[in-house]
Amino acid sequence: MKKVAQPPRSYADIIRRSFTSLLLTIGLIIVLTVSVTLTIDQLVRAQEQAARLSANLQVTQVSNFQDWLTVNRGSGLNSHNTFILIKNTNGSTTSLLPNGKNPTLAGSWQVPFTHLIYIKKMGLYFSETLTAGNKTYLLYIGMHVLLGNLHVLIAVLIIAIGLSLLIGLLFVRRLANRISQPTIELAHAAQQAAANPEVTQPKLPQPTEPVEINQLAKDFNQLLAAQNDRLRHERQFISDASHELRTPIATIRGNIKLIERHSAKHPEVIPESLGFIDQESLRMQHLIENLLHLSRADRATVDLQALDVATLAQGVVNHYQPLVSQPLTFDGPDHPAMALGDTDMLHQILTALLDNAHKYSPDDQGITVTVAQAENTVTLAVADHGRGISDADRQHIFERFYRVDASRSNQVEGSGLGLSIVAQLVQLNQGQIAVTANQPQGTVFTVTLQAAPQS
C-alpha cells in the first residue's frame, strides 16, 4: 500500500505540535512520578502499621471483633478500611470485619511484586501475613485513601494540563506568527524578485531577528547583488558588442552603395572602397574571434601542469620581436622558473600583453619582459614606456570593451576585449594580474602564478 505523503507544515503547526507533545509528556511524567511516590509512601506506612500491629498481637491475643478494635487502636489503623482473617489451629478461619460480613477472596487479583491485592467488590488492599503465638493473622489494610488521593490528583493535573495547553496554544500561535513573519516577508520579497528576472532586483528586507533569518536575508542580498552585477555586465556587454559591430557593418554597407552608385562613372572608387570593406570585415572577424575566446574561457576547465615560464617567455619574445618596431628585452633567471599553468594559455596571455604594449608605446621606446621567482610564486611582467594609464582607468581596463582614452580609441586598433581575455585566462590558471605605473612613464602588467611543487 502506497504511503500518503503528508503536506508540508508551517512554523505554527510544527511549534504547536511540539509544544502539545512536550506538555502532555511532562504531564504524564508528573502524574506517574507523583502516583508512584504516593503509592510507595502509602505502602511504607502500611508496612509500619503492620509491624506495630504484629508487636501488639504478641502481647494481646485477638479472638473477637472487640479485641481487634483494642489492638487496632494501638497500631493506628483505621478499622473501617481494615479487616483481619484469623487462621485457627483447627483449620477454621475467623473474619473480623466492621459489619460482621465474611469477605469473598475468590476472584481476587494480586499485584505482581507487591503486597497489594484487589478484592472483588471491595477494592484495593495491602495484605500482610502476621504470626503471633499459635495463630496466623491475615491483615488487609484498605488503600481507599490512596485511590481517592490519586483520583483527585489526576483530576487536578488533567485540569491544570488542559488549562496550560489552552493558554500555551494561544501563546504558541502568537509566538509562531511572530517567528514566521520575517520568513514570510522574505519569501514574498524573493517571489517578487524571481517574477522579474530581467529587472535589477532590489534588496530583500533584512530583519534584525531571529539571527538565522537575518543571516539568510544577508546571504540572499549578496546573491542578488552578484546577480545584479552579472546582469549589468551582460547588458553592457551586449550594448558594447552591438555598438562595435554596428560601425564596421555601416562602413561596409556604405562602401557597397558607393560602388553601386559611382563605379560606372568613377571606377577609381572601387579599389579604395574594397580596401575599406576588407579592413572593416577583418575588424569584425577579430571582434568575433575575441568574443568566442571569452565565451570559451567562461566555460573552460584547465588541467594545470608544471612548466618553465622563463623558457616560454624567452620563446615568445624571440618570435614577437620581428613583428614590432619597438626593441624587446627579456630579463629572467638562469635556472628554470617552474610554475603551474597551461602552456597555450600563458602563450596567449603574454602575446596579448605584448600587443597591448606595442599599440600604446612609441616606436623608439623599448618593451621589457621580466620573469622572477619567489618562494611560492612566479611572476611574469610586461613593462612599456607608453602614455600610461590613469588611476581611474586602471580599475576598469579588464572590463569588456573598455578603452583607455576614448577620444583616441579610433586611432588604435582593437576592440577593447584583449585585456578582458587576458584577465579571464589568468583566472583559469589560478593566477592574479595587476597593473601599475612604470616610472617615469608607462605601464607594467604583472601576472602572478603559483610555483610548481618541487619533486
Structure description:
19% of the residues are buried. The protein is 53% helix and 16% strand. A hairpin with a 5-residue loop joins strand 3 (109-110) and strand 4. It has 455 residues and is α+β, with helices and mostly antiparallel strands. A six-stranded antiparallel beta sheet has the order 2-1-6-5-4-3. The protein has a five-stranded mixed beta sheet with strand order 8-10-11-13-12, with helices on one face. Residues 240-453 form the Histidine kinase domain. This is histidine kinase.
Give a concise summary:
The protein is α+β, with helices and mostly antiparallel strands and 455 residues long. The chain has helices at 11-59, 65-75, 144-195, 211-262, 269-299, 309-320, 343-359, 391-394, 418-428, and strands at residues 82-87, 93-96, 109-110, 116-119, 123-132, 135-142, 305-308, 328-331, 338-341, 367-373, 377-383, 432-437, 443-450. It is built from nine helices and 13 strands.
